[in-house]
Amino acid sequence: MFDAFDADRDGYLERQDFEALAARWCRMPRVAGEPGLAGRVESVMLGWWGHLAAAVGPGGDARIDMDGLLGVVDRLPAVRAETMATADVMFDAVDDNRDGRISRTEHRRLIDAWHGRPVDTADVFDHLDQDGDGCLSRSEFAFLWTQFWTSDDPGDPGNLMCGPLGTEEA
């Protein structure tokens, strides 16, 4: 997760890293075609930057290292409503055809946008699609997204939401 956020790979998270993440998401097909959705995506991404920056101290020029990020992630179970709201925006961003379901292909776009490059997804989607119907409903997506951010159990399927574990370069 840290490496996906750290766009310039300098070992710190800064506002410009979250701006780069928002820009990647805003290039997704549906988001690029809907200015209102693009605004929601940007608001969510920069809103999380605001949470991180506020958690490590005052000032707009915060630099957050891995420990700082983990400190905020440890507090996410207490802000489930905000995490769920993020899931709703991300679902809309990924649901290219607006059918109310995330397909394997749409999920693949999520992973690539998250990492900023193509990632081998292997059988990740099969682990996420718990009912085997070939898609993720909005409620399934929200559950898995929240699990990704709040679970301490590496075996929980939600931990694969943004790609296989260990996909980033050292």
From TrEMBL:
InterPro entries: EF-hand-dom_pair (IPR011992), EF_Hand_1_Ca_BS (IPR018247), EF_hand_dom (IPR002048). It comes from the Bacteria. SMART domains: EFh (SM00054). Residues 1-28, 82-117, 123-151 form the EF-hand domain. SUPFAM superfamilies: EF-hand. Pfam families: EF-hand_5, EF-hand_7. This is EF-hand domain-containing protein. It comes from Streptomyces albidocamelliae.
